Amino acid sequence: MARRDAEEFTAFVAASSPALRRTAFLMCGDWELSSDHVQEALIRVYRAWPRLHRDGRLLAYARRAVVSAAIDAGRKRSSRELPVDRIADRGEGADLGASLADRDALQRCLARLGGRQRACVVLRHYDDLAVADVAEILGCSEGTVRSQTARGLATLAQLWAEETGDDALAVSGGRD
After folding, report:
1. In the chain, where are the structural domains located?
2. Looking at domain 97-168, which of 3.40.930.10, 1.10.760.10, 1.10.10.10, 3.20.70.20 is its CATH number?
3. Tens digit of pLDDT per residue, the chain (176 long)?
């Protein structure tokens, strides 16, 4: 890689890493693991840098690489990880509010979605990407993105009701 390319890559990493790490966190639910996923994705970006740099698709490729790394890691769960029904509270204190509890509950629910559904929900509703952009990132059709997002949201609402006892997010069976 030429010096100029190395400098541009370094600038890209600095500018995009926080957003990529947030996406990775929403995919896996662990900040340290999300850093590993971003690292893996940036290695993929580095390998493809000359081609991507000319195409101008750096961030889209990097997002796709992060999502792929998180899904791949989910498929290869380490034997030292033991799934649990509930994640222990991080502590009781005046500084913890209802929003933190809701965020933790939502993270547990997101973690229970399948990889493709979780990716669609995160990219569409957290990263606020258009259906076409998500389809390009995931390498699937727009119809697949729509159906996986709808199924993911329905499953998420069901999981939320189970987790919190609050069925306010319940999805009706028919279309309005």
Report:
1. 1-75, 97-168
2. 1.10.10.10
3. 677 678 889 999 999 999 999 999 988 888 999 999 999 999 999 988 888 866 667 888 899 999 999 888 877 655 445 555 666 555 554 445 677 778 888 888 998 999 899 999 999 998 889 999 999 989 999 999 999 999 999 999 999 898 888 776 665 544 33
The 3-state secondary structure of the chain reads CCHHHHHHHHHHHHHHHHHHHHHHHHHHCCHHHHHHHHHHHHHHHHHHHHHHHHHCCHHHHHHHHHHHHHHHHHHCCCCCCCCCCCCCCCCCCCCCCHHHHHHHHHHHHHHHCCHHHHHHHHHHHHCCCCHHHHHHHHCCCHHHHHHHHHHHHHHHHHHHHHHHCCCCCCCCCCCC
